[in-house]
Amino acid sequence: MGCFMNLLWLVFGGIFTAIEYLVASLLMMITIIGIPFGMQTLKMASLALWPFGKTVRSGERSAGCLYILMNVLWIFLGGIWICLSHLAFGVVLCITIIGIPFGLQHFKLAGLALTPFGKDIISD
């Protein structure tokens, strides 16, 4: 069932979201200062490509000072807007019964988009 849902996700917009994250990641990695942020958008691209059957968890290192500082920078440099866009898509998709599983995936992406540093993506 998860593979079928991932294929539906991919066909109905997941591929475009993943490509957008991949392009953003490559653009950020051009500069040395942008490499940590590019790695986080690469993490989001992998989740946006195939989200069903994956879980986002905070790692044991997520409480470190560097991760907190990077997450605060991330939020102020655009992470809040990425999170809000995923929340909006999630709400719109959850209006219909068929869209609920896809809306839940957008909520998962919103949580990762708000504070990606120190989070791990784990296959169920």
TrEMBL record:
Any one GO CC term of the record: plasma membrane
Pfam families hit by this protein: YccF
Give every Inner membrane component domain span: 4-54, 69-119
Q: At the top level of its lineage, which domain of life is listed? A: Bacteria
InterPro entries, alphabetized: Inner_membrane_protein, UCP028777, YccF
Tell me the keywords, alphabetical order: Membrane, Transmembrane, Transmembrane helix
UniProt KW Transmembrane keyword? yes
Show the stretches that span the lipid bilayer. 7-24, 30-52, 64-81, 87-104
The protein's name in its UniProt record: YccF domain-containing protein
Query: To which species is this protein native?
Result: Bacteroides intestinalis
